[in-house]
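Here is a typical protein record:
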Amino acid sequence: MHQAAGIVLASGSPRRRDLVTWLGFPVVGRAVDVDERRLPEESPARYVRRLAEQKARAGAIGAPAGWVVVGGDTAVVFQGRVLGKPRDGVEARHMLEALRGRPHQVLSGVAVYRPADEALWSTVVGTRVFMRAMSDAELEAYIASGDPMDKAGAYAIQNQDFHPVERIEGCYANVVGLPLCHLAQGLAALLGPPRHQVALQCQRAFGYNCPIHERVFPV
């Protein structure tokens, strides 16, 4: 199997970079510039997968020889609408008011691209998220903290102070921004198996008993 030296993460997100390092490969983060507008009639799943693939290919420019490139894109889908990152506090408030006390879906596209032979692996992962019924005062304090502004759907599941999520069904890391076990599948196909026990590491970090890792990527 072709062995590469490491991973170029086509993202400037520190959260995604931290997650990718759990796989045990050298990682270099690189923000890429792609048009993130959704195409007419494009389904949310097709949208996040297309963007993940475009980011992975864009990140290949100047990538070290033998490395693979990982691209990802996450969207919060509520009642058929795709909620991206809020433009300001007003939009963040509207998103959080709509989501509170209700379920929604988090969809992530993830892609692994090997520039050496242009091999591409990609998938889409969905997690069902049930938000708690937070108060108006809690919403205002959270918005004032600035945390919602770079998050799809205007929230971070891992925020311990706000604690926006009551429960989830599926992959926790997917809601953080990158479905690790699924990414491990792609890396195993194009780079090599992860060097760390990623499922165990993920569960310990988030305190979440993952129900899917054994069928996605065994420990």
